[in-house]
Amino acid sequence: MRISDHQHPIDTGVSSKPEATEVISGLDLSGKTALVTGGYSGIGIETVKALTSVGAHVVVPSRDIDRAVQALDGVIPADQIGAMDLSDLPSVTAFGETFARAYRVLDIAIFNAGVMACPLDRTQQGLEWQLGVNHVGHFALLRTLLPSLRAAKGARVVTLSSIAHRFGGIEFSDMNYEHRPYDKWQAYGQAKSAQSLMAVELDRRERDNGIRSFAVHPGGIFTPLQRHLGNDEMAEFGWTTQDGQPSPVAQKLFKSTSEGCATSLWAATADVLNNTGGVYCEDCNVSSVVADDSNAFTGVRRWAVDGDIAERLWTETETLIDRR
Questions:
Q1: Torsion 258-261-266-269 (CA) sign
Q2: Cα separations (Å) of 285 from 129, 165, 302?
Q3: Residues 40, 177, 188, 280: which is the catalytic one?
Q4: Mean pLDDT, range 269-274, rounded to an integer
Q5: The 3-state secondary structure of 168-188, one letter per residue
């Protein structure tokens, strides 16, 4: 296995559960351009609010323009919201090309949008929905953004992974669930492992061009991401009580949406990471690597940060896209 020497906790000077305002305190991003997918819901809105509050010009792609405009009213102008559907690769490419023509330089890209534990469905190009939206759609977007990211000469790319990466690594023999039985949680785990691995390989390929990338587990948060889960299932996980209220465990461990976006903001802006990249982060720090059978609530499994797996996935994803 090939795992970065940087994949271990560091002295960050930031608490493990800060508010977004704590992470961005003292920053000035005036003149910087950022892009946030999923920036009109859940922790995405908080991410956009935080970046704009310190001067960044933030662009938000959305498959529902009207909803995004309403959600971001008073945060960013409507002309900074563009049409894009991560489940439709031509839509992703069209948005990315339009963005690249409008913005020669992109300083920060946060791939925040995602779906979780949904019933089996397929994207417009026939990809399993969770892999297609969470990973392949963002990968296709990244390819169009690379020239603008390189032009920044110091860009950061943040991909939203999850502790759920431990539900499953990449099944290269059938990533798309064309032959094996579908399991919504294994599929989510595979997609979140893929998002972590994309950060690992992007950093290896592009760090000499000034691009550093990070995978982030935002923490447990109640957001619209849970829309495909019933309360019985969330109660079984220990997240809620039988009457639908946050459980004592959730009240102790879960984060607010402002706290949930903090690690993304930290990875996108922290000076302490200037010479680091290609790592999985949580709680505003770089994570420890844990054993594959670990029951700990923190840490990253080896398969989600392994450079050999990351390199293979990059090639396989390019092939998936180019064949469709």
A1: negative
A2: 30, 18, 17
A3: 188
A4: 97
A5: CCCCHHHCCCCCCCCCHHHHH
**DSSP state at residue 80:** G
Structure tokens at 23: 């992470």
Name the token pair of 48.
């956009």
Residue 168 near residue 193 (C-beta atoms within 8 A): yes
Q: Are 80 and 6 in contact (CB under 8 A)?
A: no
Classify residue 242 by its DSSP letter: T
Which domains does the chain show, CATH number per domain?
20-220+262-322 (3.40.50.720)
Amino acid at 100: A
Weakest-pLDDT range from 166-175, 195-204, 222-231, 278-287: 222-231
Rounded to 5 degrees, what are φ and ψ at 34? -130, 150
Tell whether the torsion through CA atoms of 21, 24, 25 and 31 is positive or negative: negative
User: Residue 177 catalytic?
Assistant: no
Residues 209 and 150: beta-carbon distance below 8 Å: yes
* Closest to 89 (Cα-Cα) out of 34, 143, 159: 143
pLDDT at 241: 54
3-state SS of the chain: helix, strand, coil percent to 5?
45, 15, 40
What does the alpha-carbon distance between residue 75 and residue 72 come to, in Å, rounded to a whole number?
Answer: 5
Q: Give me the amino acid identity at 193.
A: S
Amino acid 288: pLDDT? 97
Predicted confidence at residue 233, as pLDDT, reads 54
pLDDT (tens digit per residue) in 46-82: 999 999 999 999 999 999 999 999 999 999 999 999 9
Helix axes 138-151, 89-102, angle to 10 degrees: 10
- 251 has pLDDT over 70: no
Spatial distance between the Cα atoms of 252 and 29, rounded to a whole number of angstroms: 33
Q: How many CA atoms lie within 13 A of 90 on its CB side?
A: 3
